[in-house]
Write a structure and sequence with these properties.
The protein is α+β, with helices and mostly antiparallel strands. It contains 5 helices and 6 strands. It has 2 domains: about 1-90, Winged helix-like DNA-binding domain superfamily/Winged helix DNA-binding domain (Arc Repressor Mutant, subunit A, Orthogonal Bundle); about 95-144, Ferric-uptake regulator, C-terminal dimerisarion domain (Dna Ligase, domain 1, 2-Layer Sandwich), CATH 3.30.1490.190. The protein has helices spanning about 20-35, 40-45, 55-65, 110-125, 140-144, and strands at about 40, 70-75, 80-85, 95-100, 105, 135. It has a 3-stranded antiparallel β-sheet. The chain starts with about 20 loop residues before the first helix and ends with a helix.
Length: about 140
């Protein structure tokens, strides 16, 4: 096999085209360490520079992770794409709050999230999908 294409199957019953390459493993490791952050391709690329992750592999893997629901792609103010890892146990079932100034993402307090979800369901007959919801505003630090 070619350089940087060391592969092993992801798991039983997986699509044969989905292999865990060395580059994908490095990317997933990095993303897992930065779960509540908006990351640009440039930031990720610089962080993985020593791991042999090419820019084309980075874009390809981010697109695949996005289609698998493991990464959320968001556009910043300057139309630059940012990526946020959403496949961690820490994020499961959480509503996210994202600061429009600094870009940090926070988990909403569980009790507050439950009340919000319940109130929206009662008032509007609408069920919020917690796995894919981000509320935008200004964090306490940026608001000062």
């Amino acid at each position: 096999m070619g350089r940087g294409r060391e592969t092993r199957p992801v798991g039983e019953g997986t699509d044969v085209s989905k292999y865990m390459t060395k580059q994908r493993r490095a990317l997933l490791g990095y993303l897992a360490e930065h779960t509540d952050e908006q990351l640009s391709v440039q930031t990720i690329s610089e962080a993985l520079e020593g791991e042999g992750v090419s820019l084309s592999a980075l874009y390809r893997n981010l697109a695949e992770l996005e289609s698998e629901g493991k990464v959320k792609r968001e556009l910043g103010a300057g139309r630059e794409a940012f990526y946020r890892y959403t496949d961690s146990d820490r994020c499961a079932g959480c509503l996210h709050l994202q600061c429009k100034r600094c870009g940090r993402t926070f988990h909403m307090d569980n009790d507050s999230a439950a009340r919000l979800i319940e109130n929206v369901a009662k008032a509007d007959g609408f069920e919020i999908d917690k796995s894919d919801t981000v509320l935008y505003g200004v964090c306490e630090k940026c608001g000062k």
